[in-house]
Amino acid sequence: MIRVGIVGGTGYTGVELLRLLAAHPGAEVVAITSRGEVGRRVDDLFPNLRGSCDLVFTEPAAAALAACDVVFFATPHNVAMHSVPALLDAGARVIDLSADFRLRDAGIWSRWYGETHACPERLAEAVYGLPEFHREAIAGARLVACPGCYPTAIQLAFAPLLAGDLVDRDQLIASAASGVSGAGRQAKLDNILTEASDNFKAYGAAGHRHQPEIEQSLGDLAGGPVGVTFVPHLLPMIRGIHATCFARLKTPGLDLQPVFEDYYADEPFVDVLPAGQHPQTRTVRGANRCQLAVAVPQGRETAVVMATEDNLVKGASGQAIQCMNIMLGLPETNGLAHPGLLP
Amino acid sequence: MIRVGIVGGTGYTGVELLRLLAAHPGAEVVAITSRGEVGRRVDDLFPNLRGSCDLVFTEPAAAALAACDVVFFATPHNVAMHSVPALLDAGARVIDLSADFRLRDAGIWSRWYGETHACPERLAEAVYGLPEFHREAIAGARLVACPGCYPTAIQLAFAPLLAGDLVDRDQLIASAASGVSGAGRQAKLDNILTEASDNFKAYGAAGHRHQPEIEQSLGDLAGGPVGVTFVPHLLPMIRGIHATCFARLKTPGLDLQPVFEDYYADEPFVDVLPAGQHPQTRTVRGANRCQLAVAVPQGRETAVVMATEDNLVKGASGQAIQCMNIMLGLPETNGLAHPGLLP
Amino acid sequence: MIRVGIVGGTGYTGVELLRLLAAHPGAEVVAITSRGEVGRRVDDLFPNLRGSCDLVFTEPAAAALAACDVVFFATPHNVAMHSVPALLDAGARVIDLSADFRLRDAGIWSRWYGETHACPERLAEAVYGLPEFHREAIAGARLVACPGCYPTAIQLAFAPLLAGDLVDRDQLIASAASGVSGAGRQAKLDNILTEASDNFKAYGAAGHRHQPEIEQSLGDLAGGPVGVTFVPHLLPMIRGIHATCFARLKTPGLDLQPVFEDYYADEPFVDVLPAGQHPQTRTVRGANRCQLAVAVPQGRETAVVMATEDNLVKGASGQAIQCMNIMLGLPETNGLAHPGLLP
Amino acid sequence: MIRVGIVGGTGYTGVELLRLLAAHPGAEVVAITSRGEVGRRVDDLFPNLRGSCDLVFTEPAAAALAACDVVFFATPHNVAMHSVPALLDAGARVIDLSADFRLRDAGIWSRWYGETHACPERLAEAVYGLPEFHREAIAGARLVACPGCYPTAIQLAFAPLLAGDLVDRDQLIASAASGVSGAGRQAKLDNILTEASDNFKAYGAAGHRHQPEIEQSLGDLAGGPVGVTFVPHLLPMIRGIHATCFARLKTPGLDLQPVFEDYYADEPFVDVLPAGQHPQTRTVRGANRCQLAVAVPQGRETAVVMATEDNLVKGASGQAIQCMNIMLGLPETNGLAHPGLLP
C-alpha cells in the first residue's frame, strides 16, 4: 500500500482526498495535518467519514511527512512553497493542489498572488498536473502542480481546437461558473447561504488569478501565445464547474464533433458527449470526469465548447489522485472509476 | 382607474402581473382568463394573493376583454396571434408578453417557432416593447410586443457599445443564464427540483429562439446587421437572468464606465453600477430593474458587459406594466418603484 | 410623515425595515446607524436599495435618534438594553427587534443569554409586540419588545387551542424550521452555502433561547403554566419559518377548522387556510402574513397545527412596522398589505 | 458473481441501484427493464453512468428475470404484486422496493393505496427488509419487502425507546422531512424547482401511507399496539430524510445516550452520534447510513430523537442491497461501505 500524507486536511479538497482514498485499493492515508485542529479526530470535523477514517489531525511535522510515499498539499496558496523544498530534498514526492507551483514565472506569480515567491528556483522542476497534456512528465515527476479547477475545464475545452489549429488563438473567450465549494471551507460573508443562494453573479471580471495559468498552458499546447478572456461566475450550488468557451473558427461551420471525439478517444476521464447533448454539472458530481460537448450555432464562425467537471474531483482532489496513480505506476483509474451521484 | 384584463393568468407572468398590479395606484385587474381553471378563485391557485385578489378565472370571452382599457396576453406563443386581431379591431390596446409579435418577418418566425404565423399582416403594427429603445413609439401603440427575458438583458448590455459604434458588430457573444421560472409553470421532467437543482447546463447551444429577436433589434439600433452568438444556460434557482456579453473593442482598453453611465443617465429602470462592482441577480429580485456593469479585462480589446434582471419583472411582467404606463400616459414608474427583495 | 430611526441597519432585519418602509405611505427613515459602516451609503451595502434610499450610515448618536418619532433596534441581543433607557427618558418611542426586553424575568434572561441584564428595572415597561395578543397595550406603549421569529409562528399556532382550553397544556410540542436568514448576516462557517445548502438538521435540541419566551407568553394566554418542547431546524433556503405544532386534544377528533377560523376572523395578517390545504413558506415570502392550517390525523387525539411566516417580515421587521402603526395611530396595515413574492 | 435483474430502472431508486452495484465486488446487473424505454441505452438516460454501464433497457420478460439470482423491483406500487408471484414460483429471489408487500393486512393496504391487492395470499411470505429488526428472517427469505424511506428513519429512531419500554407507546410523534427525490422521477407540477425550491411545507398531515407501516412494525417491536402521529414535509433539496421523533418518557430526564449506543453497538449502518451533536442529512448523502442523536430538552419528560438517512440509499436502494447481501450470504457491508459525499 502506498503511504499518503495530506497537509492541510480541514478544507474541502482535504476531505475529498479522504473520501476518494478511502475507496482506493492501493493507497492509505497515514498522516493528515492541520495547525488549527491538532488532536481532533478527523471524523469529528467531517462526520461523513465516521467508520471510514480513524485518523487524528497532527502538526505538519516534516519527518512524518517525509516518510510518506507521496504528500498532498491541500492548502491555500502561499503554504506549500515554504515546505515543499525540504520535503523534496528528503526524498518525498509532492502533489500540490494549490497555486504555488503552477506558473513558471515567479514574477507573474507575484503579480497575481500579491506576494514574493518563496522558492522560485524550484518552479522549473514542477510538472503541471493535467494528465491529458503531460502524462509522461507526470510519471517521472517528483513535484506535481495540479491545475486550478477552472483551468482544467477550460483547457480541456479548448485543447482540440488549438491542437488542430482550427481557431484564432488570440480571441479565446471562457465564460465559466463554479459552485461555492470552489471558494473553500471559509467563513466569508459572500459565501453564506443567504448571500450566495438563489443568486448568480460574475466576479473578478477585470482579471482572475486563473487567467495567466490558462494562457501559459494553452500557449504551450498551441505552440505560441494565446489570448484568453476569462470571466468566472458564482453558482448557487455546492459542487460543479461549467465552462462555456467561444472561439472563432478558421473554417466557418466546421463539424467539430469528430475532432473532439478523436482527440479524447483514449482518455479515461474526458468524455465527449454525443452530438446535440449538453453537459451538466450534476452528471459528474462526485466523479473524476470532464464531460464535453461542442456546437457551432447556426453553422457560423463561432465554436462553442461546453465542459463540466466536479471542481473538487477532476478539478482538484480526483485529478491529484490521478496524478498520484501515474507517478507511482498504478493503473491511472484506480479509485477513480465510480459513477457520479445522480440525482 | 385603468381597467386591465389578463389572458392566460395561470402562469408565472400572470401571477406576477397580479402581484405588481395589486400595488399599482392607477390600474385594476377586472378580468383574468384561463381555459383550464374557469370558475376557480385565483387565490386558490396562488395563495400569496389571499387578501389581495378576489377574482375568479373566466373563459377568455372577447366582449369582456374588449371592455378593458388594456389586455395583457400572458400566454405561451401561438395563442395571442389568434385573438389579438379581433381585440384590436374592437378598439382594445394589447400588450403581448409572448413571442407572437416580436419578429417582423413571419417567415423567420415560422422557422424558429415551427408553425405558420396566424396574422402576418398585423406584425408591422406591433411596437417592440423595450421602452429604453422605443419609448415614443410605445406611447402611440395599440399593440406592444414585449421582448423576451434574455433579449431584454442582452440588448441593454450591448446598446451603449453599438450606439457608439465602439465594437465589431459581427462578433457579439452573449453567454446568459436564467432561473427556472423562465421555463414557465409547467410540469416538465427537466424542471423538477431533482433534475434542475444543484446543477448548471447550457441548452439550445446550437440555436435558441431569442437569437433572431436579438439580432433584429440590435441591428435596428446599430443601423446594420449584427452577428450574435447566444448561449443560454439554466440556473438552479427560481428568478433572475444574468447576461455576460463580450464584444471586440475598436479601441483596446477604452474606458467604458462613462459610456454606460451617460447612455443610461435618464433611465429609471436601468442602473449602471459603480466601476468595479458586479451585478447580482438577487439585488433585482422582484424589482423592475436591470443592473449593469462593464469591464475590460487586463485593459485589452475585449469588453465584458454584465447585466442582471428579474426575468419575471424587467424581463416580462414589470416591463409590460412599464409599457402600459407609457401607452396610457401614466408616470412610467407607477407601481414599479419598489426595491428588490434581499436577501 | 413619521420620522423613523434605525439602530443597527447592516443586518437583514435592518435592510428589510428599509425595503418595507420605502413603500410605507406615512413613514420615512431619517437616520440609520452602524458603528462599523459609518459614512458608507446604505445602497452601496445593499444594492437592491439603489434608487430607493439615499441615506448614509451614521454613528448611533443619541440626539439624532431622540429626535425621531420612533426608533427601531435591529441589533443583536445585548445592545438595545444599554441604549434604550436613555432614549425612553428623552421621550422617544422604541421598538426593539432583539431579545433584550422579551422576558419579564431578568434572571431567566441571564440564564439563556449568558449575561447580566443591563436594565432589569425597565423590563416591566416593555409590551410584547405580538399585536394579535396585545394590540391595545401596544397602542399605549413606549417600548415594544418584538417577539422572536419562531415564537411568533408557534404562538399563533397554539393560541386558539389554549384560549379555548382544548388541549393538555403541559404537552405542547413544536417542531419548527427556519431559513438561514434567521441566523443573521454573519460570516459563520455553519451558514456558508456549502455547509447549509442541500442539508437539513436540528439544532439546539437540548434547549433554545426562544423556548422560555414561548412558555411565558403562552402561559399568559392559557392562564397558567404551559409545557413546551421546542426543536428548531435549519432549512436550506433563505427566508421562511414553518412550525409544525402538536397538542393532545381533550376531545379526540374535534373539528378544529371553525375554531381557528373564528379565532382569527378579524386579524388582517393571520390567514387560516381552507380545510385540507397546507401552508407553504413561499406563499408568504416577503409578506407580513402568517398562514395556518390544522389537522387531526386519523381523527385521533393529536392536533397538528402548521404555521408559516417570513421570518424577516411577520417574524421580525414587518411585525415591528405593524407595531409602529398601532403605536402611532396609523391604519395597522399601512405599508404591509402587499402580496408575497411567488414564485 | 451474483446475477441481478432490475425491474423499472428509469426512476431514482433504479439509477441508484445501478450506481451502487457498479461498485459492488460480488454482484453484476445483467438485466434492466422499462416498458417506456425499451432499446435505449441506460447511460443515455443517466449520463452519470457513461463508462460504468453498457446495458440497454428491455421489456420486463419473465424468463430473463427468472434467470437472475435476485430481482429488484424499483417500480411504483401496484406493479410488483402482479409479477412477483410468477417469479417466485420460477425460483427467483425478489427484493421489492415498493409498498406492495409491506403491510400484512390486504385490507389496510387497500384502504391506503386505493386498490385491491393482487396477491394477498403472498403477503405472509414477505419479510420486512429492515435488517436491524429482521436480519435472520431476511437471510432465509425469498421475498423481501423493503421499508419506505420515512419508516426506516422513524423506526430506527423509536426502536431503542420501545424495546426498552421507556416511553408511552401510544403517544409517539414523528415530524419528518424529505428531499424531493422521495417523490420520484416524475413530471409533477408540485415538484418543479420553481414550486419546490426555497420552500417548506407539510403534506398529507391528515394521514400518509407510511403511517400504518410504521405502526405495524413498531407494534411488533413493542409487543403491542403503538400510536404514531406522523407528519411528512417536503424539503427544498434533492436527497435526504430527517426525522424528529418525540416520545413521553416514563422516567423524566433519563440519560438516553447509553441506551442508544448500546442498542446499536453492533450495527454497521446505524451510527449514534456523540452526545450533543445533531445529525445532518448531508453527512449521509450517498451513504448507506442512518445517523442518530437523542436529547431530553431541559431534562424534562419528552425525549427527542433525530435520525438522518439518504432516502435513496439507506431509505431505499442501499438498504435493498444490504438485504441482498444478507439473503445471498455475502458480507453485509459489501458495496456499501463508502463514505457520504460532503460537501
From TrEMBL, chains A, B, C, D:
E.C. number(s) listed in UniProt: 1.2.1.38
Domain Semialdehyde dehydrogenase NAD-binding: 3-141
Pathway terms, separated by semicolons: Amino-acid biosynthesis; L-arginine biosynthesis; N(2)-acetyl-L-ornithine from L-glutamate: step 3/4
Keyword Transcription assigned: no
Active site residues of this protein: C149
Entry similarity comment: Belongs to the NAGSA dehydrogenase family. Type 1 subfamily.
GO molecular function annotation: N-acetyl-gamma-glutamyl-phosphate reductase activity; NAD binding; NADP+ binding
PANTHER family for the chain: N-ACETYL-GAMMA-GLUTAMYL-PHOSPHATE REDUCTASE, CHLOROPLASTIC-RELATED, N-ACETYL-GAMMA-GLUTAMYL-PHOSPHATE REDUCTASE, CHLOROPLASTIC-RELATED-RELATED
Catalysed reactions, semicolon-separated: N-acetyl-L-glutamate 5-semialdehyde + phosphate + NADP(+) = N-acetyl-L-glutamyl 5-phosphate + NADPH + H(+)
Gene: argC
Keywords, alphabetical: Amino-acid biosynthesis, Arginine biosynthesis, Cytoplasm, NADP, Oxidoreductase
GO cellular component: cytoplasm
Domain of life: Bacteria
Location in the cell: Cytoplasm
Name of the featured protein: N-acetyl-gamma-glutamyl-phosphate reductase
Free-text function comment from the UniProt entry: Catalyzes the NADPH-dependent reduction of N-acetyl-5-glutamyl phosphate to yield N-acetyl-L-glutamate 5-semialdehyde.
Stored InterPro entries: AGPR, AGPR_AS, AGPR_dimerisation_dom, AGPR_type-1, NAD(P)-bd_dom_sf, Semialdehyde_DH_NAD-bd
BP GO terms, sorted: L-arginine biosynthetic process
One Pfam entry name: Semialdhyde_dhC_1
Keyword Transcription: no
